[in-house]
């Protein structure tokens, strides 16, 4: 019973927050928003925002539009997630391309084909980050090798100092 009461209190608090955010969004972006929440505690208990009459008017204006026009602006969860995934994949591809570019610049610097004075700020930062990653990888590998070496000696682990 306490958990049920607490759940309803949390629901009420979250709905107040949701309605406040909806009002902010409505004002800031000059859009019309309608929210309906069906409460789990009572049968057919529902809350409309901003008010029951305003919600009905907004819903009727929406339903009066032709189906083709309504579907044109409708974003389903699948469409939203697909757009998000495409954006993330594009960002990953850009990062891979930039990482390859930095590896190429790093090898040019190493071979003496290029100097740090020939690089712009973005390239310098990228090469620095690549060098940091390479150093971290080398340190991790050295720790692994030391651990394996001491493991072969069969010494107790607390005797190992890295």
From TrEMBL:
GO molecular function: DNA-binding transcription factor activity, RNA polymerase II-specific; protein dimerization activity; RNA polymerase II cis-regulatory region sequence-specific DNA binding
Major localization listed first in the record, in broad terms: nucleus
Name of the protein described by the UniProt record: MADS-box domain-containing protein
UniProt cross-references to PANTHER family, sorted A to Z: MADS BOX PROTEIN, MYOCYTE-SPECIFIC ENHANCER FACTOR 2
Keywords: DNA-binding, Nucleus, Transcription, Transcription regulation
Annotated localization: Nucleus
Gene Ontology terms: cellular component: nucleus
Domain of life: Eukaryota
Signal peptide: none
Organism: Nicotiana attenuata (Coyote tobacco)
Domain MADS-box intervals: 1-51
Single Gene Ontology BP annotation: positive regulation of DNA-templated transcription
